[in-house]
Amino acid sequence: MTEKTIVHLLRHGEVHNPDGVLYGRLPGFRLSEDGNEMARTAAKWFEGRDVTALYSSPMQRALETAAPLVDAFELPVTVDDRLIEADNHFEGLTFGVGAGSLRRPEHWRYLWNPFRPSWGEPYTEIARRMRSAVIAARDAATGHEAVLVSHQLPIWILRLHAEHRRLWHHPRRRECDLASVTSLEFEGSRLVGTSYAEPAAGIGRGTGVAGA
Asked: How, if at all, do strands 78-79 and 4-11 pair?
C-alpha cells in the first residue's frame, strides 16, 4: 500500500502591531497576547496526531507560534527560509488611501500589475519555494505528518497552486485566518486532497488585511 503523509501549513498567530503597518520581513514583530493564545490553541488541535517533523519560517512571529508544538511533540524546529513572508515594497508602511502610502505618488509605479504582482515577490516564485518546502517536509515525514509554520500569503498561494487555481486574487478573499491550518494529504508523492481548519477561531481580531 502507498504510504499516506500529511503536511500541515500553520499560519502564525496575531502579531503585536499597534501602528498597523505591513510588517512583512521586518524583524522584531512578536506575537500579541491573543497571538500566544492562538498558538497554544493550535498546538492543542494537533494533539494525538502523528507529527514527526516541525518546520518554521525564520520570522519571530512564526517561531513563537511553533514553540508550543516543540513542547507538545518534543521535536526540534527546523528553520526553513523558503517559508518566509513574501517580499513587499510597502513593508514598514501603512497601506491604503487617506493617511496610507497609496496617497503618495512615489508608490504608484509599484501598482501597475496586480497579476504578477508588481509591488513584491512574484506569485509564481512564492508557489515554487513553498512547493519545494512542502516536498522536503513530506519526504522527511513519509508515512506520518509534518507541520510548517508560515504566513498568510505564502500559504494561500501554495493552496491555489495545489488546487490548480489562478494565483492572482483579492487579499480579502484569502481563506487563511490567523493560526489556521491548511493541510495537504499525499499518497506517496501524489497530492490527493486539501483541507482547512481554524482551531483558534474566535480568539483576537481575525484575519484583517495588514500583516501576514
From this structure: unpaired
Q: Please check whether residue 212 lies inside any domain of the structure.
A: no
Ranges under pLDDT 50 in the chain: 97-99, 208-210
For the stretch 97-131, what's the b/e string if a residue is b when 16 or more beta carbons lie within 10 angstroms of its beta carbon?
A: eeeebbeeeebeeeeeeeeebebbbbbeebbebbb
φ, ψ for residue 195 (rounded to 5)? -150, 165
Report how far Cα 142 is from the mean position of its chain's Cα atoms: 22
Total structural domains within the chain: 1
The DSSP line for 168-207 is ---GGG----TT-EEEEEEETTEEEEEEEE-TTTTSTT-S
Residue 122 grid cell: 512574484
Residue 210 maps to a domain: no
What CATH number has the domain bearing residue 32? 3.40.50.1240
- Domain of residue 179: give its range: 4-197
Calpha distance 161→96 (Å, rounded): 28
| CA gap 127, 60 in Å, rounded | 22
Query: What's the pTM value of the predicted model, to 2 decimals?
Result: 0.89
Which segments within 113-171 are labelled E, that is strand?
145-150
Q: Is 144 a catalytic residue?
A: no
Q: What is the pLDDT of residues 16-41, one digit of tens each?
A: 999 888 899 999 999 999 999 999 99
Catalytic site residue from 8, 14, 64, 85: 85
Note if 85 is an active site residue. Answer: yes
